[in-house]
Amino acid sequence: MAATIGTETGAVLVNPAAKSRTAAGMRSILLPLGLAFFVLAVWQIYVTVADIPSVILPSPISIAYYIVDRHDILLMHAIPTTVESAVGFLLALALGVSIAILITYSPVAREALYPNLVFFQLIPKIALAPLFIIWLGIGPQSRIAFSIFIAFFPVVIATTAGLLSVDKSILRLCRSLTATEWQIFTSVRFPAALPHIFSGMKIAITLSIIGVIIGEFITAQAGLGYLIIFATARADTEVSMAAIVVLCICGLLLYGMVAVAEAIANRFYSADSR
């Protein structure tokens, strides 16, 4: 119990472990926020004291004012970027987990695929972006495909590591109890691999956003990447910085959704194990 009431004094006795977890949770929130506010304050003071032109470096306050005043335009461009990033991430997740399962259960596939996956990962991804435009056109399909291309590799590596990390003695015990491979996968391998899978997902969600933005840099009529390039060409640094801030917010929302999914999965499998 997190707290108990004394029978004689009526005082509330707080569990030290619960208090420690609360303090750790508050610290994990306050420290990043404090650092962010400190950086923004230094930025604002530097721009004001040094009288830096907004075309070179706008102040955080002016960027915030622009975001509030022109939130409709920013939202209009944020929606396609966020949707395409989410779609690319989900498809990269499905592809990455499927390849990882194939590599785990098939030594032939592991020997054939793994070296080629590493080879393709070494190719500079931005060099292939124009080819995706040629192959798939200027629509969202090329940006989503490019997002999948650069985001699925971390999922493959992390999932494979997780599926292969199960203790061999546990697998032998399951087989001795006549458990099928599907039962072993759903009850042993997959739950054990979840921390690795979500680690790969957290990397993949950031890469999927980068892939979409690169595609919007090259050819797009909407999206935050398009807005950044358009504003930069007009030397409108304030708009570019505002679009970058909104892009960061969208990225944090997508990353937070992955973190929430991880918490739900951990709670589900921990409850299931009991």
TrEMBL record:
Membrane topology note: Multi-pass membrane protein
Keyword flag Hydrolase: no
InterPro entries: MetI-like, MetI-like_sf
Keywords: Cell membrane, Membrane, Transmembrane, Transmembrane helix, Transport
BP terms from Gene Ontology: transmembrane transport
Regions that span the bilayer: 29-49, 86-105, 117-138, 144-166, 203-229, 241-265
Pfam families xref list: BPD_transp_1
SUPFAM superfamilies referenced in this protein's UniProt entry, alphabetically: MetI-like
One GO CC annotation: plasma membrane
Localisation per UniProt entry: Cell membrane
Domain ABC transmembrane type-1: 78-258
Highest taxon of source: Bacteria
Recorded family membership: Belongs to the binding-protein-dependent transport system permease family.
Protein name according to UniProt: ABC transporter permease
Lineage: Bacteria, Pseudomonadati, Pseudomonadota, Alphaproteobacteria, Hyphomicrobiales
